[in-house]
Amino acid sequence: MTTQSRHRHDAPEQPSPARLLPRRLAALAYDSLVVGGGLMIATFPYLGLLYWTTGAEAPDVGDPLFRIYLLALLLGYTWLSWRKGGQTIGMKAWRLRAETLDGHILGHRQVLLRFFSGFPAILLFGLGYLWSFWSPQHQTLQEQLSYSRTVLLPKRR
């Protein structure tokens, strides 16, 4: 096998939305478990600091500082994952990678756009993901807004 044909075979694939959607959702569910556990553990230092500074045993309902803290942790996880290798833990498990339209690691602005546009894409009954069925490039709404794409990586041998 020549080097050229091996690289062509090992190149990421841009599958149809129907084939990619179950993988996207499985990766999202997997990441939700990982991130949920991480955020629970990360709550303990916040609670300790809150008790030490104010004497309160729990944050008030809707505490904006607590929400910002959790959002910053979630953004940090996503930022590091997408900037380092284009994959969160869930994306690695399902062989997905987030990348620029020309196949490079996402830039800082793209990570922010993709991250923050992902919330409404999910919360509006997944319409951002279903968008890929009507998009000519099969991109989700958050991918179109961030000029990025999700590719399926080949199986490891």
Can you describe this structure in just a few lines?
This protein is 62% helix and 6% strand.
Could you explain the architecture of this structure?
With 157 residues, this protein is mainly alpha-helical. The chain has one domain. It has a two-stranded antiparallel sheet. α2 packs across α3 and α3 crosses α5. The longest helix is centred in the N-terminal third of the chain and has 38 residues. It is elongated, with a radius of gyration of 18 Å. The protein starts with a helix and ends in a 5-residue tail after the last strand. The N terminus is likely disordered.
- Which structural class is indicated by helix and strand composition? mainly alpha
Uncertain stretches of 5 or more adjacent residues: 1-9
Principal-axis shape equals elongated
Q: Helix coverage percent of residues? A: 55-70%
Sheet with most strands: 2 strands, antiparallel
Total beta strand runs: 2
Strand order of the largest sheet: 1-2
Radius of gyration: 18 Å
- Topology order in helix (H) and strand (E) letters: HHHHEHHHE
Question: How much of the residues is beta strand, in percent?
Answer: 5-15%
**Count of DSSP-assigned helices:** 7
The pLDDT mean sits at 89
Spatial gap, N to C terminus: 15 Å
Can you tell me the number of structural domains?
Answer: 1
Architecture blueprint of SSEs:
Elements: H1 3-10, H2 17-54, H3 64-84, H4 89-93, E1 96-100, H5 108-123, H6 127-130, H7 141-146, E2 148-152
Antiparallel strand pairs: 1-2
